[in-house]
Write a structure and sequence with these properties.
It is built from five helices and two strands; from the N terminus they run αααααββ. Strands 1-2 form a two-stranded antiparallel ribbon. Strand 1 and strand 2 form a beta hairpin. The longest helix has 24 residues.
């Protein structure tokens, strides 16, 4: 994942509500799947295993976010466990087929969460974050970000 993508995701995370955080995690999984496929194509097993570790970290976060009192959460748990089994298979056999199975599941979940994102009217999970205004200024296709009120406390409240 490039530095710019990490910065974009970090900014989105600081301003996201609960539903948007799940959507961002799904997007991270999809990005890491791309990296895993690239590592397989380059026959770089060490890089592949590193990406698989990152994927498992994302899946652990998704699993930890479930409220298992609801039936839907039980169903999501089963899907997440399936994805974890596929990650183990991919890691041990270095096969792209397992990654394709994972991509199919995560794409469906990502699309579903994107649809319900608009229904979640709750505020950002993180409080006390800096406001960032972005716009095109003084350069062709150059994005400049400005922080409003940089002297305020930068501590995050969750």
């Amino acid at each position: 994942m490039t530095k710019e993508v990490k910065q974009e995701l970090t900014l989105r995370i600081t301003q996201a509500n609960k539903t948007q955080l799940i959507t961002i995690l799904y997007e991270m999984v999809l990005l890491y799947l791309d990296e895993a496929e690239d590592a397989l194509a380059a026959d770089d097993k060490a890089e592949f295993k590193g990406v698989i570790r990152k994927l498992r970290g994302c899946m652990n976060e998704l699993t930890a976010s479930l409220n298992l009192e609801y039936e839907l959460a039980q169903n999501l748990l089963q899907l997440y466990l399936y994805v974890n089994r596929e990650l183990v298979q991919a890691s041990s056999h270095f096969e792209k087929e397992n990654l394709e199975h994972i991509r199919k599941v995560i794409m469906e979940l990502h699309q579903a969460y994107q649809k319900i994102e608009g229904q979640d009217r709750s505020g950002p999970v993180m409080g006390n974050t800096q406001t960032v205004y972005a716009g095109l200024t003084y350069g062709r296709n150059t994005l400049t970000e400005n922080i409003a009120d940089p002297t305020t406390n930068r501590g995050f409240c969750v």
